[in-house]
Amino acid sequence: MTKTLNELTITEAARMLRAGECTVRELYDSCVHAAKEKNVVLNAYLELFAPDEVAIAEAQARIEKEGDAAPLLCGIPLAMKDNILIEGHIASAASKILSNYRATYDATITTKLKEAGALFIGRTNMDEFAMGSSTENSAFGPVRNPIDPTRVPGGSSGGSAAASAGHLCLGSFGTDTGGSIRQPAAHCGLVGLKPTYGAISRRGLIALGSSLDQAGPLAKSVRDAKVLFDAVRGHDPLDATTITDTTYPRKETLKSFRIGVPYHLLEKGLDPDVKDNFERTLKELEAEGHTLVEVSLPTSPYALAAYYVVQPAEASTNLARFDGIRYGTSKEGKDLLAGYLASRTEGFGPETKRRILLGTFVLSSGYIDAYYRKANAARQLLREEYDRAFEKVDVIASPTTPSPAFKFGEKSDPVSMYLEDIFTVSADLTGMPALSVPMGNVERDGISLPTGIHFTAPLGADDLLFTIGARVTKETL
Amino acid sequence: MVSVEDVRKLAALARIEFTDAELEKFAEQFEGILAYVSQLEDLKVSAKGEVVSPVRNVFREDGEPREKGTYTKKIVEQFPKKEGNALKVPQIISYD
After folding, report:
1. Across the strands, what pairs with B87?
2. What is the pLDDT of residues A183-237, one digit of tens each?
3. Which chain A residues are Cβ-neighbours of B74 within 8 angstroms?
4. Is residue A52 within 8 Å of A59, Cβ to Cβ?
5. Dihedral of the alpha carbons of A329, A335, A338, A340, in degrees to the nearest 10
6. Chain B hits for A357, Cβ within 8 Å
7. Distance CA A81, CA B8 (A)
8. What is the rounded CA–CA span in Å between residue A5 and residue A269?
9. Spatial contact of A419 and B33, defined as CB atoms under 8 Å apart
10. What residues pair up with A48 in beta bridges, in sequence order?
């Protein structure tokens, strides 16, 4: 069966463009056609942009002129999460409070992608301000999972995941604060990378938790994820938290990996067939010559609790800037305070309000020691434990999520939703890079749903993740 | 225990208004979330404290100003209320 153009991976499309087997225009139109047809159901895109004819023509000319020397992303149609700024386009973070906000500049990653000749099809739906694990918190309606539209695509980058998995683009960018790239990647059968904190500039991302946030790719293959990551990584003078090649010790590329497995975290709360997929994948890796090593991460069970202190604290601080005065939704009141109250009360949705209140609480004077400072200490402890584990292993493996994609409304209680991120938050708290890769399907209600295996690597060792990820997907990089 | 009054106070600090029904619902959900988060009490930590990261946020030295007006038009377009190129804000000082 031949793939239609929109179903190609980035790598396949780049080859066809260079061979003259398709044009940039045809590739773009194929994605837009699929997007127009499927978005009615999926709601992956909040907006499909008018085609940038100049950029399309320039990309085509560049490929014809430069051939293999042209960047791989030249002429490739991508989707961007609605919290990544593209100058002149609305960036609302799926919130009513920014529904009319038009970006006044490009995010650094947008600039880099434009320089590589990539094209943007549209901006994708998400949980409001990236708070959530299902996209049910979008102010503009939930996203549906392309594999089973009765189920969520995961979140918060659910729109970017659905757009890539449903072939409404060739690849997409999301952001990850507690699992928001890797969890939707697992639920939609994609590869999702949360890079080392600082590997990609945060300039021009709408901030959620500034010590946690990282942008990253959602892709149809490990190779594509690497292409997208390589195009945007690197130090940025406009983001002081970005790293250079020398910030962390270099790790050599490996032929065989020592894979750490924290078996003590897998004893309960995991669907049996997800656990089976995980164990089967590990056995296959072992058979290929990699070694499995048991590791102990005793602070891990506290990671999610620490996360739900640190993240709301940072979110409530970051979201204090939305006051209706300078941009965004603005409601008038009888005085300044009444205007703030009206703009924020109307502009924010329920989960955003919940986290702002929670953050305000954990930072208030009577509680800051018991919650915020304790959570930061837990975070430090967690990083030390991971550092110790990485003395004897190269990567640490777990399932990405305890279960496959769930149905809408299934996790209406906030804590049950937060538990979706149980395996993913540690990488955000420690800043370490982590990758989710498809590890086989499980069946629910007669439908075959994807599951993901999750690898964490030491700080700065993002490239190790592609190598081990490609062993799972049987790709050559 | 988080009372409805506690949540009302937090809401006032966060500049958000809630109806009484919403306050009750939030107070109830807060209980659940705090019960989960309070596991942290059981965790023994040494007094070492803060995360020391090789990367931290710093402000650069002032300098290299952009050409005046580069972003003015785009930013002014975002103003909810304006007079010319000036942002119009509600009266801040009251005289009553």
Report:
1. B82
2. 999 999 999 999 999 999 999 999 999 999 999 999 999 999 999 999 999 999 9
3. 102, 104-105
4. no
5. 40
6. 7, 10-11, 14, 16, 26, 30
7. 34
8. 40
9. no
10. A122
DSSP for A209-228, written as a single string: -TTT-EEEEEESSHHHHHHH
Closest alpha carbon to A25 in A78, A76, A65, A66: A76
- Give yes or no: A180 in active site: yes
Interface test with B, best of A360, A383, A412 (most B CBs within 10 A): A360
SS3 A2: coil
pLDDT of residue A326: 95
Nearest CA to A401 out of A471, A450, A446, A472 is that of A450
| Both structure tokens of B48 | 């070492």
How many whole angstroms separate alpha carbon A216 and alpha carbon A294?
29
What is the ipTM for the molecules in this complex? 0.92
Q: Is A440 helix (H, G, I), strand (E, B) or coil?
A: strand
Is the pLDDT score of A355 beyond 70? yes
Question: A99 catalytic, yes or no?
Answer: no
For residue A52, give both structure tokens. 């940038």
Helices (H), chain B: 4-13, 20-37, 72-78
pLDDT tens readout for residues A424-438: 999 999 999 999 999
Residue B49 is predicted with a pLDDT of 55
A327 is written with which tokens? 């941009």
A477 close contact with B: CB closer than 8 A: no
Torsion angle of alpha carbons A203, A207, A211, A216, nearest 10°? Answer: -60
pLDDT band at A360 (very low <50, low <70, confident <90, very high): very high
Query: A111, A132, A238: which is closest to A179 by C-alpha?
Result: A132
Angle subtended at Cα A198 by Cα A194 and Cα A201, rounded to the nearest 5 degrees = 95
State the sign of the Cα–Cα–Cα–Cα dihedral B3, B6, B8, B10: negative
Name the average pLDDT for chain A.
Answer: 96
- Among candidate residues A92, A138, A157, A180, the one labeled active-site is A180
Catalytic member of A156, A221, A403, A436? A156
Give the DSSP letter string of A120-186. EEEEE--SGGG--SSSTT-TT-----SS-TTB---SSSHHHHHHHHTTSSSEEEEEESSSTTHHHHH
Predicted confidence (pLDDT) per residue in B5-50, tens digit:
999 999 999 999 999 999 999 999 988 999 999 999 999 887 555 6
Positive or negative torsion for Cα A7, A8, A10, A13: negative
B 67-86 → A contacts, CB under 8 A = 71, 74-75, 77-81
The reply to whether residue B49 touches residue A373, judged by beta carbons under 8 angstroms, is yes
Cα–Cα distance, A418 to A355 (Å, whole number): 12
What type of residue sits at position A335?
A: D
Interface touch A104/B51, C-beta < 8 Å = no
Rounded to two decimals, what is the model's pTM?
Answer: 0.96
Q: A156 preceded by cis ω (within 30°)?
A: yes
Q: Which amino acid is at A89?
A: H
Amino acid at A3: K
pLDDT of residue B52: 65
Contact A431 B36 (CB under 8 A): no
pLDDT value at residue A252: 83
Query: Are A335 and B94 inside 8 Å of each other by CB?
Result: yes
What are the structure tokens assigned to A387, written together?
Answer: 């550092």
